[in-house]
Amino acid sequence: MLATISAVSMPSFPTPGLAPVAPVTPRPAEATEGQASGEMFTKMVSNLVNEAQAQQTKADDAVKGMLTGQNTNIHEVMLAMEQARLTMSLVVETRNKFVEAYQELNRIQM
């Protein structure tokens, strides 16, 4: 007989200095017109770039703090650096997909 597992709970380990990650829920597009959708897209890309810059600044500050002796926790510094790296990778891959889509649209013959 197979028993079904309805929910698995993971143990929670307190991590000083780190806030829990909130789940991301997609929001439906509110605008139906082309220009309004374009504005929403511009805001989304702008937010993504701003988030990447904020993560990079946070990582830079953590490294500076460690080098000056203000922050001696190497784990927090490494986490900040890894978050910045992952965010920048997301921005680069998103840009690459946009360029690919643009090039594909240019190849379409009318």
Describe the structure.
The chain is mainly α. The protein has a domain at 39-107. 63% of the residues lie in helices and 0% in strands. It is built from two helices and no strands. The chain has helices at residues 34-68, 74-107. The longest helix has 35 residues, at 34-68. It is elongated.
Summarize the structure.
By secondary structure, the protein is mostly helical.
What is the topological layout?
Elements: H1 34-68, H2 74-107
Helix pairs in contact: 1-2
Structural class category = mainly alpha
Total E-strand runs: 0
Termini, distance in Å?
Answer: 61 Å
- Helical percent range? 55-70%
Average pLDDT metric:
79
- Reading the helices and strands in chain order gives HH
- Oligomeric state as shown: single chain
Poorly predicted parts: none
Determine Rg (CA atoms, Å): 21 Å
- Strand content is under 5%
* Shape verdict: elongated
Counting DSSP H or I runs of 4 or more residues, the number of helices is 2
Taking the sheet with the most strands, its summary is: none
